[in-house]
């Protein structure tokens, strides 16, 4: 509707009534159980602005919509606008389609400072996403302080260099890389996110992707385990020895995780385990049961479906496609859809010859906007098992916050609308125009170095750094 076409994600309904109200303005808030969770009604007239919601999240999203309506100036940290600001009069009735609207940020492969994580959290909140999945451990680094096991960060939090691009040769950059979050840093991130309606879901990845942990504590692995934090990308053959002593070690690690992160959901990995045995499956199931015994829910990648009979509270992250998610939902397990082919933000954005480090599947803005989180053929009685969807920012080739910005935006803008707005009726041309006209100026105001729609800027390219497109 006129005056409301700039909303992103799209509202369930919007009616413009003409006129405008000066901004900033006092906002009335009314509680009503008639409004769905996280939903809101926003009424703007020349005399008042009123938000009606049933919870704090609804109020928060209504205020975010107001910020969108004011215009890009409202996204700056200081007022640079000359003259009065106004907001158009009308009514918006809005609610999210899915309860899980997430984004994974991999801080293990390339560490992001606390300040950078807080900034990323702000950007998720601006897009009405509500889950930040922090991938805290991997072969290339351990980022979580565990006071009982100090070598995890003393040794496991840094590596002597990194593979440049994606290739099969021995070339490395020779630049040491590292970093980790102290306990109070993580508590601060959690609290900051909560103030913005975002739950931080931590991940400690086991029994594969553990080279950093094995470098610190070799006794956790097989005799021939590597003895340095990995400098390559990809899948390392090192895996945990699924013994009782290893299980006790990681129960203690997760005790620290439980003490720091109040999230109901705790991620335990389970993906890409070369040479996995039945004992490794049992190891994962016992860790899941341990978390469930402490009132939490384990989230594992879809390989966990092959581990054995999973405890009912387990959530499956369907990343290798949609089939595993459909299978898990049909089996009575809750699912978060995050298929590599559709929502991996580290994958290449175009066939443009200057695309930096082009890896993986081709996933354009239009591809993200066309994604449907409910897998085809999913039985009607299993659809409620799909909690929502999650975009993934794996960071092997994202070695700075500028590179994260480039890979993430504006594709995350399209994803945010997919997981918020009703199914069907998506008009790609209309979305692209709305993105170009209204939302990219907001990203400019926020200082986001996104990928331009027509290709990378010269300083966003990486000449001579090899990729591996699929």
Automatic annotation (TrEMBL):
Catalytic activity reported: Hydrolysis of terminal non-reducing N-acetyl-D-hexosamine residues in N-acetyl-beta-D-hexosaminides
Alphabetized SUPFAM superfamilies for the sequence: (Trans)glycosidases, beta-N-acetylhexosaminidase-like domain
Keyword Protein transport in record: no
Keywords associated with the record: Glycosidase, Hydrolase
Region feature Disordered, mapped onto this chain: 1-25
Pfam family, one: Glyco_hydro_20
Protein's UniProt keywords contain Hydrolase: yes
EC number(s) on file: 3.2.1.52
Residue ranges constituting the Glycoside hydrolase family 20 catalytic domain according to the UniProt record: 98-274, 279-422
Residue ranges of domain Beta-hexosaminidase bacterial type N-terminal in the record: 26-94
Recorded superkingdom: Bacteria
PANTHER family linked: BETA-HEXOSAMINIDASE, BETA-N-ACETYLHEXOSAMINIDASE
Family: Belongs to the glycosyl hydrolase 20 family.
UniProt protein name: beta-N-acetylhexosaminidase
Organism: Amycolatopsis minnesotensis
């Amino acid at each position: 509707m006129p005056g409301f076409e700039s909303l992103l994600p799209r509202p369930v309904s919007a009616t413009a009534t003409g006129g405008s109200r000066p901004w900033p303005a006092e906002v009335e808030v009314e509680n009503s159980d008639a409004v769905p969770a996280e939903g809101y009604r926003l009424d703007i007239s020349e005399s008042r602005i009123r938000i009606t919601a049933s919870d704090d999240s609804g109020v928060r999203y209504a205020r975010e919509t107001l910020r969108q309506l004011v215009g890009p100036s409202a996204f700056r940290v200081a007022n640079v606008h000359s003259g009065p600001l106004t907001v158009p009069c009308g009514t918006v009735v809005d609610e999210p389609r899915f309860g899980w609207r997430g984004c994974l940020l991999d801080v293990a492969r390339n560490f992001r400072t606390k300040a950078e994580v807080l900034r990323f959290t702000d950007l998720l909140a601006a897009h009405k996403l509500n889950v930040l999945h922090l991938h805290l451990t991997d072969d290339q680094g351990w980022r979580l302080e565990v006071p009982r096991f100090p070598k995890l960060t003393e040794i496991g939090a840094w590596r002597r260099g990194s593979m440049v691009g994606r290739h099969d040769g021995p070339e490395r950059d020779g630049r040491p890389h590292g970093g980790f979050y102290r306990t109070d840093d993580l508590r601060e991130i959690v609290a900051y996110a909560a103030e913005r309606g975002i739950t931080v879901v931590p991940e400690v990845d086991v029994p594969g992707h553990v080279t950093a942990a094995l470098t610190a504590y070799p006794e956790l692995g097989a005799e021939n385990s590597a003895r340095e934090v990995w400098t390559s990308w990809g899948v390392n053959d090192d895996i945990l020895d699924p013994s009782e002593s290893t299980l006790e070690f990681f129960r203690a690690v997760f005790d620290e995780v439980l003490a720091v992160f109040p999230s109901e959901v705790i991620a335990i990995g389970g993906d890409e385990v070369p040479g996995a045995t039945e004992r490794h499956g049992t190891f994962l199931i016992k860790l899941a049961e341990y978390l469930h015994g402490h009132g939490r829910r384990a989230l594992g990648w879809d390989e966990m479906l092959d581990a054995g009979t999973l405890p009912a509270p387990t959530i499956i992250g369907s990343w290798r496609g949609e089939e595993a998610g459909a299978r898990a939902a049909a089996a009575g397990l809750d699912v978060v859809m995050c298929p590599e082919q559709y929502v991996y933000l580290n994958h290449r954005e175009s066939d443009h010859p200057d695309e930096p480090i082009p890896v993986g599947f081709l996933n354009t803005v239009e591809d993200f906007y066309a994604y449907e989180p409910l897998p085809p053929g999913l039985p009607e009685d299993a659809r409620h098992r799909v909690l929502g969807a999650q975009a993934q920012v794996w960071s092997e080739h994202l070695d700075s916050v500028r590179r994260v910005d480039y890979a993430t935006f504006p594709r995350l803008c399209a994803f945010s609308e997919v997981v918020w707005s009703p199914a069907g009726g998506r008009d790609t041309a209309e979305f692209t125009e709305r993105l170009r006209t209204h939302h990219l100026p907001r990203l400019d105001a926020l200082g986001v170095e996104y990928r331009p729609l027509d290709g990378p800027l010269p300083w966003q390219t990486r000449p001579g750094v090899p990729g591996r497109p699929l």
